Amino acid sequence: MARRLPSAPPVLPGFSHLHVLGTGGYADVFLYEQALPRRPVAVKVLLAELVDEDVRRSFRSEVNLMGRLSAHPGILTVHSASVASDGRPYLVMELANPELGERFRSEPLQPEAALRVAIRIGAAVETAHRAGVLHRDIKPANILSTAFGHPVLSDFGIAGLQHDATEAAGVSVPWAAPEVLRGETGGTVATEVWSLAATIFSLIAGRSPAEQPGRANDHAALTERILAHDLLPSRAIPAPLRRVLDKGLAAKPSDRYARVEDMLVDLQAVQRELGFEETPIEVEIDAWAAEAPAPDAGVDEDSDALRLRQRRSRRSAGITGSRVDISQSTGRREPQKPKRFAIGLGIAVASAVVLGIVAIAAIALSSVSSQIPLVAEIAVAPDSGRVSFTWEDPGLVDTDTYHVRTSTGDALIQGGREFTLTGEPGEELCIEVAVNRDGATGEATEACGEPLP
Ligand SMILES: Nc1ncnc2c1ncn2[C@@H]1O[C@H](COP(=O)(O)OP(=O)(O)OP(=O)(O)O)[C@@H](O)[C@H]1O
């Protein structure tokens, strides 16, 4: 894609413009100095030609998503957002170093460093998924480093906007899952697993999985290879890690990890097998539910976030099955062993803060939820050891997803209209399905069934 000249930096009260940091498909990023507190900040300004009422609306909702998520240590911090006097929306972000994503071709990472980055970034993605948000553009260029050298994922939530704006440029083809390139979906958990695996591969191999040295590697060639699942292995990737990435890059979405968390557990196992220090997976854990505000602390009893918290609290009390132990290598579901969660108090507090913000956001978004289609009815098909749930399309638009919550405590996002839960005969298994549109979740529909012997 030909690089364009950056636009003129807007005049922002309280900020002095210093210089251009970079240009993207839909925005320019400038270095400003904030007056109070005095600090350098990166300001991302949407291109004027892309701004209309729809884009402004999307920008607002996407920025709210980023605000909700940016307490996570693996997600770039967003300080504030507004609209400049010339009408361009802008986002004030933590200043970070883009070298990691820019240099992977000339200076690929060693597997040990790449695994650390992968687990940290993957935990950010998993946390977003649990909040009902897809990134939709996981790639090396969206991994920046903070002033303290920690990798963080950027463009969170803004990615939906970016997709619309840069579809023609196809800038993310090398990391896009086949079903995205076929236009079947704008994003699912499975496509995020694919993109994360392709990103980890790229950081170590110095090229994306479908790129072939000495051959055409333009978007058309890469698309053709990704669709044909013609991926070129790299010797730089150790065998145990290759097995994990192969699963993440499986052609069929159902052959990939069902959740990012499951892939991270296997990456930790790879770290142990290769004798590397294990990186903690920083996602919210059951303990954080206890830290959350009580219902009488001004939180809407009816909000999705609260329902999820209550369900998790019940689960913590041992009433239902346990969540996957994210620090175990097997990927099997086992009871949690708190000492294995090398997650500091800071994370628990940050998670509690995220939950609080999520709850507040859920209330704020409830006014738009009435416009979000409702899943009319969920058909329940009990079978031996499992129950399958299916539902009709209630009238989705391209970027909508289904937000599925289960009585076993999982919350995930998917594009498909079916879901299966496994369990013991006679055990009541329930799911709630709601449509997620622009970060807002509509009313949920619930259905339950019992597995047959
Ligand atoms: N928080 C930040 N701190 C420092 N530099 C940044 C920051 N965010 C972005 N940049 C720089 O600005 C450039 C443009 O960023 P932007 O996110 O708009 O585009 P991109 O991700 O490279 O491309 P696209 O948006 O088309 O996918 C980046 O390549 C990076 O060099």
TrEMBL record:
Positions of region (Disordered): 310-337
Transmembrane segments: 341-365
InterPro entries referenced in this protein's UniProt entry, alphabetically: Kinase-like_dom_sf, Prot_kinase_dom, Protein_kinase_ATP_BS
GO molecular function: ATP binding; protein serine/threonine kinase activity
SMART domains: S_TKc
CDD domains found in the cross-reference section: STKc_PknB_like
Residues binding ATP: 44
Name of this protein: non-specific serine/threonine protein kinase
Leader sequence segment: none
EC number: 2.7.11.1
Organism for this UniProt entry: Agrococcus sediminis
Xref: Pfam families: Pkinase
UniProt KW keywords: ATP-binding, Kinase, Membrane, Nucleotide-binding, Serine/threonine-protein kinase, Transferase, Transmembrane, Transmembrane helix
Domain (Protein kinase) ranges: 15-270
